[in-house]
Amino acid sequence: MTALDQAQKLKAKFGDLISEPSTYRGDVAMKIADAEKIFEVCNFAKKSLGFDYLVDISSVDNYGEDPRWTIVYHLRGLTHGLELRFTTDVSEEKSELPSVLGVWRTSNWHEREIYDMMGVRFSGHPDLRRILMWEGYPYFPLRKDFPLAGKPTDLPGVAFTKPAPLEGGPFVTFPSSAGAINREPRVRTPEE
Q1: Measured between alpha carbons, how far is 136 from 69 in angstroms, rounded to an integer?
Q2: Cα–Cα distance between 148 and 20 in angstroms, integer?
Q3: Does residue 190 belong to any structural domain of this protein?
């Protein structure tokens, strides 16, 4: 049994709700047309197809497009060793989709991180609060419209009170025609 065979079973069960499986370098991916059905699809994938491990949930900001966000679910079956990826889109107006915490308890932290960094909410999540930023922080730092230098805060002593400088740091390289290896400061010898 291959991941493509498992994907075909999902397609047979859910029909037009799920796209035909696509493969790229051995990875099998399917798009779920209606984000509201993500719980049902994930529940079937776990209970009937053996995808018992949620590797990750990640989010993509499609800033300037509608729908704004793509949520990506990476699944693995520990007994059969197969992997499958689901994607679903969430519009900026709705900014919410069902939690899969009832399917995989490990989704707790993934969903909280997506909420904290992107602002996408998960309905039915019992503890949807910020996980990296402090409560009351009004922005979502991984959105593409968030400035690279950051934003000033009104809470002195909690974080930077001014935008962070974009100069210096461990990853500064110097423009040249040399390759990245030669420009990387950590590989230079003291004689250079």
Answers
A1: 23
A2: 38
A3: no
Name the burial class of residue 145, with classes exposed (0-12), middle (13-18) and buried (19+) by CB atoms within 10 angstroms of its CB: exposed
Residue 186 has pLDDT above 70, yes or no: no
Domain that residue 53 falls in: 3-157
* Position 174 in a domain: no
As a whole number of angstroms, the distance between CA 110 and CA 131 comes to 10
Q: How high is the pLDDT of residue 33?
A: 95
Q: What is the DSSP string of 80-111?
A: T--EEEEEEEE-TTT-EEE--TTT-TTHHHHH
**24-35: pLDDT as tens digits:** 888 899 999 999
In a domain, 78, yes or no: yes
- List the structure tokens of 120: 């996408």
CATH number of the domain enclosing 19: 3.30.460.80
Count of domains for the chain? 1
Identity at 144, one-letter amino acid code: K
